[in-house]
């Protein structure tokens, strides 16, 4: 095989590899969008009884996930963010750019009281159940199953307590 043939072979392998990566990215991106939509719909259903009673508000708005390597202008991660308004405070569920292997995470803002803490929802690539991850400083994050009762307990922490 001469160098020109070898070059052609290498370029074919490269093109096949790039096509496979693109296809894999498209499949993972479609799952990213689908799972976010399902999550937000689930949260809306869980909160429907208190939303209908006018005790809190839930709404979605268009959002484009971006990050240091994915600027908002070119980001393919178009989605929505979900906001829950409760006792004059906002809790926002904001999608992050899709992670390695199709990892999906959602930043949860408005719930952490710790100075260096953060809260996120994480859906591992091979799972269907969301996990609530609370990170505080350098220690390992606390992880909990995310369900209606857990969300309600987190939102209860925003209700001011009356002092007697």
Textual characterization of the structure:
- This protein has 164 residues and is of the alpha+beta class.
- The protein has one domain.
- Helices cover 36% and strands 29% of the residues.
- It has helices spanning 3-52, 148-156; strands spanning 57-64, 78-86, 89-95, 104-109, 117-123, 131-136, 142-145.
- The protein has a seven-stranded antiparallel sheet, with helices on one face.
- Strand 4 and strand 5 form a beta hairpin.
- It starts with a helix and ends in an 8-residue tail after the last helix.
- The model has no long low-confidence stretch (mean pLDDT 88).
Question: Helical stretch count?
Answer: 2
As a whole number of angstroms, the C-alpha radius of gyration is 21 Å
Q: Name the beta content range.
A: 25-35%
The class by helix and strand makeup works out as: alpha+beta
Low-confidence stretches: none
Number of extended strands: 7
In the residues, how many domains can be counted? Answer: 1
Largest sheet: 7 strands, antiparallel
Which strand order does the major sheet show? 1-2-3-4-5-6-7
Helix-strand sequence: HEEEEEEEH
Distance between the termini: 88 Å
The mean pLDDT is: 88
């Amino acid at each position: 095989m001469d160098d020109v043939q070898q070059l052609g072979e290498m370029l074919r392998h490269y093109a096949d590899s790039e096509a496979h990566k693109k296809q894999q990215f498209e499949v993972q991106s479609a799952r990213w969008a689908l799972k976010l939509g399902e999550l937000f719909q689930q949260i809306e259903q869980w909160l429907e009884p208190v939303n209908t009673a006018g005790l809190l508000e839930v709404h979605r708005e268009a959002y484009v996930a971006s990050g240091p390597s994915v600027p908002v202008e070119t980001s393919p991660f178009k989605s929505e963010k979900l906001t829950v308004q409760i006792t004059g405070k906002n809790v926002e569920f904001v999608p992050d750019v899709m992670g390695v292997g199709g990892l999906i995470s959602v930043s949860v803002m408005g719930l952490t009281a710790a100075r260096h803490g953060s809260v996120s929802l994480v859906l591992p690539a091979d799972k269907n159940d969301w996990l609530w991850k609370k990170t505080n400083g350098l220690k390992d994050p606390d992880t909990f199953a995310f369900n209606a009762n857990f969300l309600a307990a987190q939102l209860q922490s925003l209700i001011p307590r009356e002092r007697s």
